[in-house]
Amino acid sequence: MRLHLSRVEAEVDGAVHGAELRHSGATAGPLAVEVVDAGGRGYRWAVANRGDRPVAVRSVALVFAVDGVRAPLRLLRHGYQSWSPTDLAVVGVDRDPSTRARLPFVQGVYHADPRTVTKDGELRSEWFTLVVDAGGEPAFAGFLAGTGHDGTFRLRPAAGGGPPELAAEAYLGGARLAPGERRPLHELRVVPAGTATSVDLLAAWAGEAGAAAGARTAAPYAVGWCSWYQYFDRVTGADIAANLARAGGWPFDVFQIDDGYQAAIGDWLDTNDRFPAGLAAHADAIAAAGLRPGLWLAPFLAAPDSGVARDHPDWIARTPDGAKPLFAWWNPAWGGGRDGFVLALDTTHPDVLAHLEDLARALVATGFDYLKLDFTFSPAVDGRWHDPSCTPAERVRAGLDAIRRGAGEGAFLLGCGVPLAPAVGVVDGCRIGQDVAPTWALDPGDEVVPGYLAVQPATLHAYGNTVARSFMHRRLWVNDPDCLMLRPTDTRLTPAAAAGWAAVVGATGGLAVVSDDLARLGPPESALLARTLAAGRAADAAARAGRPATAPDLLDRTPATVIAGAAGRLVVDPATGAATPG
Asked: Is residue 346 a contact partner of residue 359, using CB atoms and an 8 Å limit?
């Protein structure tokens, strides 16, 4: 199997253009695409508007013929953001989930391009991918960065007698290019089949991408408590105080208040009537207990009835036609005056960036220097933005950079629901999977949006992404696999599944966070946490030395079942969640 670069494609002003690649470039409609071989390791490329008027560029792609395929042809589908599934798909068998949902409002959360895939049998992966046929030796393709644009790989079945094709797409999302403007695109790394194993290919790419982006990987191993999975959005100040009073007997470093304290989505400095003492009192109490105060927020969202939305309507992005404010997500529990629909702050607007910087500075001054930034995909949603030249990735990164400026270098920023590629170099920790839940797996009948069962909270779903993305730990950030599920009551997890998930968290070495009412936990749960932390510290130390846990069977099955790490091999049964040394 061989990847052979043959042509370019571009979508400009709603029209798709294709051109054969000749020498060092091609002309695709009004665009000139420059392509330079990067010493046999991939390609450096750029795009320029050669016309006399501005153009809206949706995407530009280098298209590779996949020659010499021995069926079946498989693609590692890496997800776009924290909650987007990563799995193994077979060409001609599996489908892109958008072809079932046909719901761009939801698809825009889980893919760089929110539109439904229209080419028959096309599969896609974000940021990087592995392609493997029956020969078993994978080829790799991946972008070395994601701050300037997203990268999507589209694998298309053979058609018209030709070979399958892999398109490496720079997704600009309709960004406007002025006449004569030239825009460099992120370097594309391509490694032929037969060069290395999947483990080695992913390790080499992550190391190079992390180094190029200045990845923040030095934060200490952290153990924490979080309010979410016990109390959800109904948490009270009394709940926080009660658990803090019990925290002294536990080995916590961080104590984090999650969703439910705020007066409104967007008004993060004001608390609701369940938190009458206010944020500063809770931060002071946490710090007095010797713990690092942590706080959840969704910084790029605003409820319609929030103060920030009422006072600054010009800070809200607009629908693509400019007619209405842009809704970026929906959570009925948030209310907000529109039954849970919430608005997208325009992170291309200078005043919004100043607001985000001031907000982060104020939260740190209040005492919260551990900030969990959630639903951070929202600036990437299709809409009309103050600066039309910005790509979705640039909008996400601009917001994150503003928060980093305000929070300062010493703050710990945890990205969640975040497009992964733009986050490298600004977040310290990153959620790498879906939300866990006090249940292992879901039934097909639990599916809310057709095709997207795997994005819904379930510990099995979090497990699949945690194993698939284990190689990122200490190369791109500190991995956050999401919370442990220790409690023996108020749960549908079997003891074997709860212990198995704890073993996975330990074996992969990322953040270890408890999210149970501490009054429900006793000596057995304390002992399970102690075992998890012993394994986690060893795995994290190995990752610091350049040897994070890996998934050697990643290209054999979904989800992978083997974690190879500092303490040897852990084998997980996806049907039950049970984990055993192997």
From this structure: no
Q: From the candidates 96, 239, 435, 517, give the one annotated as an active-site residue.
A: 435
User: Which residue in the list 239, 267, 369, 374 is annotated as catalytic?
Assistant: 374
CA gap 574, 414 in Å, rounded: 28
Q: What whole-number distance in Å separates Cα of residue 421 and Cα of residue 432?
A: 12
Candidates 376, 266, 379; CA nearest to 313 is 266
Encode pLDDT of 451-490 as tens digits. Answer: 999 999 999 999 999 999 999 999 999 999 999 999 999 9
Report phi then psi at 232, rounded to 5. Answer: 50, -145
Contact between 139 and 130 (Cβ < 8 Å): yes
Render pLDDT for 320-345 as a digit per residue (tens, 0 to 9): 999 999 999 999 999 999 999 999 99
Which residues contact residue 57 at a Cβ distance below 8 angstroms, ignoring those fewer than 6 apart?
A: 10, 11, 12, 31, 47, 49, 172, 174, 175, 176, 177
Helix axes 279-288, 350-366, angle to 10 degrees: 50
3-state secondary structure of 149: coil
Task: With 0.85 as the threshold, say if the pTM is over it.
Answer: yes
Is 374 assigned a catalytic role? yes
Cα separation, 36 vs 26, in Å, equals: 11
Question: Does residue 435 have an active-site annotation?
Answer: yes
Give the helix/strand (H/E) hosting 565: strand 562-565
Distance, CA of 125 to CA of 94 (rounded, Å): 13
* H-only helix segments in 93-167: 98-101, 104-110
Q: How many beta carbons lie within 10 A of that of residue 373, not counting itself?
A: 25
